[in-house]
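FAQ: What does the model actually see?

It sees only this:
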Amino acid sequence: MNYFFPSFIERFEIEHEPLSQLEITVNSGTNALRLLLQSFNLSVNDKVCIPAFVCNSVRYAVEQKKLTPVLLDLKSDNSFWTFYNLNFIKSENIKVVILVHLYGFVHPDTKEIVDFCENNNIKLIHDAAQSYGIDEKVLSQGNGTVYSFGPGKSTTAAGGAWIKFSKKNGSFFILNKPSIFSFQNMKAKLFLKSRIFNYRLSKYEIFLNRILNRFHSDTIFSMSSFQLKMASYSISILKQITPFRKKRYAILKEAITKNPLLEIAYDNDTGLYFKIILFVKDGVKKFRNFLEMNGIPYFTLFNKIEENNKLVYFKKNALNFIEISCESCIPESEIVRIAILLNNYK
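And it is asked to produce this:
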């Protein structure tokens, strides 16, 4: 119940030519980060700055390369944005900064961070895994941008990721391509099926998925031909579905702003509108129970925070951010139902 991010792709059988811009693709966003970190010729235990408020795969990618992740706190109360303390980054001899652009928005301090890294010879990775469709001009400086086609993204398709470089910092990787009979290709097809709204996996598909999920490999491959096809399709129709996302977002936003117990965590009118982020002012456990009792699917990055965590704003607020999908494939009637419930929450 607490994981609900469908793809806007509504049919499994789609034919679409791979887009030429998808030159460097990887089998996961985690592996895309690993590949970029590997290309920097870093030494063991070199420090990499990452947000504390980000999915675990970012930290995992850093640790897999035998590097030291340095976790950064949130900026303030009620904000999911990370505070990239530039004085701290300089004093700690940080070698790489991973700048994360969450929930379909550009990090508000991007220019300042990018300029700082460039002036201090610090490598910068734009992690825009969730956020294909944001202003790419803002991401043109740096050492690579990662976009994802996995769950909960603006371009959820059949998994995989794309590494994009500006012309100035172009790079080249040669990766093996999985066969059509590979575990990766089979998992990709099952993943997309599981993300099609209201699709129910058969008993055989559920069994097969369990078997395939036992086989985890850190080997870095390119995306399969099926993944490329679906990723290309998701990119090509993004503008077409945006009005439907906006309408669903607006319905939920109106309801949330009327409830004094809830607020929109961030909205600068430039987002991608595929999900809405709530901040629960008090009683987040009660609110989660309310969502589950009323069949409102949601997602949170964290279910618990360790007591010894010393990041003040992260420890205080990280559990209070709730994600609800506004994807175009969700019937408007269902969005209205959720909006009424959120408006009436006490």
